Amino acid sequence: MPSLKDIKRKVSAVQKTKQITRAMNMVAASKFKSAQMKMENFRPYAGKFMDVLNSLAGRAESISHPLLAVREPKRVRVICMTSDRGLCGGFNTNLIKATERFLREKTAENKEVGMINVGRKGRDYFRKKANILAHKVDVLSRFDMTLAAEIADEVIPAFIKEEYDELYLIYNQFVNVSIQRPSVVRLFPLPSIGQEMDGDGESNVDYSYEPSEEVLLQKLLPMYVHVLIFRALLETSAGENGARMAAMDNATSNCEELIRSLTLKMNKARQAAITAELMDIVGGTEALAKG
Amino acid sequence: MSEDLLTLEVVTPEKMVFSGKVEEVTIPGTEGEFGVLRGHEPFLTSVDIGELYFIADGKKYFYAVNTGYAEVTASKVTVLIETAERADAIDKDRAERAKVKAESALAGLSKESSEYEKMRLALVRAINRIGVAEKSTLH
């Protein structure tokens, strides 16, 4: 039986941990809000962009662009998007597991796999396990479209130069605060546009194009890649903070649970000490009375 | 009067920069700057680094914009760009510093390197921002 003092010390330690986890929960909550706001603000841009791209793709007679080129996939690259910081439950673990499964599959098919890491956690994990070609770490706390453009710069020229044949993006899809689903998306060759009808599809206006449809499409496709990457970044950032909120909320209630049981133990120990003392006194007086 | 107005929306990934009625808007297209009034023929074009301005309530507003595209219909103009900054919100000192930095970086690079194109664009952007920032005092 631990002494009263030991238990007291433990209770105060757990209490301090609880304070920290609660503070982290609140910080994550406010970051989550701003990440969600960013997602909200991005929606009109993405929606409009898809509208125009779809109507353009539907109009241009034959789309041929190096980013759409289908080659036999011998060399595969993958962008793995994790968070920079931990303490967010299974957020990174699940994603890394999904990535490993993906790597195993591709290696089993005798494909050469190169990896680009976004986020410190994934980079650290795969540092010795995979062939990392480039990484961006400590970038997710503040980012804008420039980051998406930088990532795109790593992958677009190499694909056009035929240094590899397929590019996948693995990231945590944001479903809601408590659910983030690891998902694998093929970026290059770009899946034929027009399938992903996000827009309302009523853009039947007869535009004239300047420059021509084809040239315009060439300019828009890299921007489309930016949009896709940026969306994944936003979802990662929102998901990370959502996961951290949930994890810290759990930790806080676990601390409370622990404190409750420790307090009970402490009270029992104290009661036991008092009882023992009383027994001593009673025993002592009885002995005196007899004598 | 209101039938002479044009709806303008300037959208970046970060936010809706502007949304409202304007009398006229001038956009830096890749094929040259163009002005749009209500009733313009519908068309679509890409936008380059440059200055976008519009007139609303008789006042001229300037923005420094980055690449993107513009969609024009008879009554509405939608500009989707990666960045847009209002002239009076531009930090001119920062732009000047970026210009100096880009210039010195360019001096030490060969024209073939991929870095060169990047720095050249950075320089163009910085010069554009300085130019637009100076216009903020005009109106």
How would you characterize the overall build of this protein?
The complex is a heterodimer of chains A (291) and B (139). With 291 residues, chain A is an alpha/beta fold. Chain A has two domains: 4-27 and 247-290, Orthogonal Bundle (Helix Hairpins), CATH 1.10.287; 31-244, ATP synthase, F1 complex, gamma subunit (Pyruvate Kinase, Chain: A, domain 1). Chain A is 60% helix and 15% strand. Chain A contains five helices and six strands; from the N terminus they run H-E-H-E-H-E-H-E-E-E-H. Chain A has a five-stranded mixed β-sheet, sandwiched between helices. In chain A, strand 1 (75-81), helix 2 (91-108) and strand 2 form a beta-alpha-beta unit. In chain A, helix 1 (4-59) packs antiparallel against helix 5 (213-290) and helix 4 crosses helix 5 (213-290). In chain A, 33% of the residues are buried. The two termini of chain B are 23 Å apart. With 139 residues, chain B is an alpha+beta fold. The longest helix of chain B has 22 residues, at 114-135. In chain B, helix 1 (92-107) runs antiparallel to helix 2 (114-135). The model of chain B has no long low-confidence stretch (mean pLDDT 85). Chain B has helices spanning 92-107, 114-135; strands at 6-11, 16-22, 24-29, 32-36, 43-47, 50-56, 59-65, 68-72, 76-81, 84-86. Chain B folds into two domains: 2-87, ATP Synthase, domain 1 (Sandwich); 90-135, Single alpha-helices involved in coiled-coils or other helix-helix interfaces (Up-down Bundle), CATH 1.20.5. Chain B has two helices and ten strands. Chain A binds chain B through residues 38, 41-42, 44-46, 48-49, 52, 56, 144-145, 149, 157, 205-211, 216, 219-220, 223, 226-227, 230, and chain B through 11-16, 29-31, 41-46, 67-69, 71, 73, 78, 80, 82-83, 114. Strand 6 of chain A pairs parallel with strand 5 (43-47) of chain B.
